[in-house]
Amino acid sequence: GKSLLLNAFFGKELCAHGPEPLTAEVKKLEELYKGRVQMYDVPGTNAMGEEEHARMQEEFVKRANCVVWVTNARQPLRESELLQIDQIRKYKPEVLVFVNFWNFVDE
Predict the structure, then answer these.
(1) Rounded to an integer, what is the distance from CA 3 to the centroid of its chain?
(2) What is the pLDDT of residues 20-42, one digit of tens each?
(3) Which of 9, 70, 98, 105 is the right S-S partner for 1, CB 3.0 to 4.6 Å?
(4) 3-state SS record for 14-48
């Protein structure tokens, strides 16, 4: 979800995406506004190697001014995700939440 969102943001294919998680390493994306804004695609924690991905995520969150959290409308937040959000909040970045698969939710 987040890689596809980043591709849409930039208007081009920068991040691999698919039905299964594909981001295994941190990928620096384009710098915006003459280098003052940097964006990274960081592995999600919903894949194999979840503990290592959580460690990588935390290293970037410590320095982030803003964190984008992508969640799935077809399933409630898992307890582990709620714990991660609490961990993120201790560093006090702005948090933007995007909900994907909204088109699959019954009205």
Answers:
(1) 8
(2) 777 777 788 877 777 788 888 88
(3) 70
(4) CCCCCCCCCCCCCEEEEEECCCCEEEEECCCCCCC
